[in-house]
Automatic annotation (TrEMBL):
Single Gene Ontology MF annotation: oxidoreductase activity
Residue span(s) of domain Lipid desaturase: 125-315
UniProt membrane topology term: Multi-pass membrane protein
Segments passing through the bilayer: 88-111, 117-139, 207-226, 246-263
Family membership: Belongs to the fatty acid desaturase CarF family.
Keyword Transmembrane recorded: yes
InterPro entries: Lipid_desat, Plasmalogen_desaturase
Subcellular localization, as worded in the UniProt entry: Membrane
Name of the featured protein: Lipid desaturase domain-containing protein
Primary localization: membrane
The organism of origin for this protein: Exocentrus adspersus
Gene Ontology CC: one annotated term: membrane
Keyword terms of this UniProt record: Membrane, Transmembrane, Transmembrane helix
Length: 324
């Protein structure tokens, strides 16, 4: 289709990419049309922007979305030294626990157990994708920046991301991964405790479960940092970051996106159509289509709104309107 809006050439190439040419779009038809995505997704006023949406000239008279948005600037300034310290500590502890657990797993691994490890890996991917969706949905939909502890420390990045989507591409390794790594620490810590205190027989009996937990922790971390290669080179390119990156991606990353092995750009763009009420899973995005068809998230929102009276995404909308 021809794009009706002004887009950078590389962005136009990605968004005009024939829909029949990707495995992802053949199997999982999007719930929003290309026209809806282009007309209603946010202007990402950034050198790495997805699209320079400007259908009406006067719309460009002031910042609507991106790093110049008033709400985005205010939210970015709320990133504190204390939060940075917490993220540094969590990244250090998590990476240490990952290395220790990996050494134990390699010690106990046997060739005949490889098939169960593959199953554990697939289960870990699916669980991580659902977990990413659940956390993403909860943080996008409920709560407020004014909440003690949680607001400025954990909900702030979600609000910022909706009004400045490519801010994630400017975050470093620590800011990108700190919270994800924090979530895995209790589970990785329990694994180390089991390896150190249980008998060899008990460890072997729990080996498949421990592999599942370990791989789940890896995939949770991979949601915001794509591979061990990235850990070593500190390029700061993540699965989620890659879904907002339209320039300079390696060919193998584009291949993985087109095959929907990792979160594709076209697929994740559906979530960034206001009011951001769908496609919350961001590890692989495999569960987005079935959950949407089941109306899983909207059903939860109806139940919660009925019980509490709180409107979904009220705080998210408040921050979006700060730029108007």
């Amino acid at each position: 289709m021809a794009l009706p809006l002004s887009c950078a050439p590389r962005v136009k190439e990605v968004l005009d990419y024939p829909i029949t040419s990707t495995v992802a779009t053949n199997l999982l038809a999007p719930v929003k049309t290309e026209q809806q995505i282009l007309e209603n997704s946010m202007l990402e006023d950034d050198p790495n922007a997805n699209c320079a949406v400007a259908s009406v000239p006067q719309e460009r008279s002031g910042p609507r979305w991106g790093p110049q948005h008033k709400g985005a600037q205010e939210l970015a300034n709320l990133y504190s030294t204390g939060k940075r310290t917490q993220e540094c500590i969590c990244v250090g502890i998590c990476l240490t626990l990952m290395v220790v657990n990996c050494m134990f797993i390699l010690f106990y691994i046997r060739l005949e157990k490889l098939s169960t490890i593959v199953v554990a890996a697939l289960c870990g991917i699916v669980t991580a994708d659902f977990g990413s969706g659940l956390v993403h949905w909860a943080a996008d939909t409920w709560g407020s920046i004014e909440l003690p502890i949680l607001g400025k420390n954990f909900l702030r990045p979600f609000r910022e991301h909706h009004i400045d989507p490519t801010s994630i591409t400017r975050h470093d390794f620590i800011e990108t991964n700190g919270d994800n790594f924090m979530v895995t620490i209790p589970f990785l810590g329990r694994m180390v405790w089991d390896f150190l205190t249980l008998s060899k027989e008990d460890v072997e009996n729990k080996f498949t479960w421990n592999c599942y937990v370990f791989l789940l922790a890896i995939f949770v971390a991979m949601t915001n940092q794509a591979s061990c290669y990235e850990y070593l080179t500190d390029l700061g390119k993540s699965i989620h970051k890659w879904s907002h990156t339209y320039f300079g991606l390696p060919g193998w990353v584009i291949f993985l996106q087109d095959c929907h092995i990792i979160l594709p750009r076209r697929h994740h763009r559906i979530h960034h159509v206001a009011p951001h009420e769908t496609y919350f899973c961001i590890t692989t995005g495999w569960l987005n289509w079935p959950l949407e068809k089941l109306r899983f998230w909207s059903a939860l929102e109806i139940i919660i709104e009925t019980l509490t009276g709180y409107k979904p995404r009220a705080d998210d909308m408040k921050w979006a309107q700060k730029g108007t």
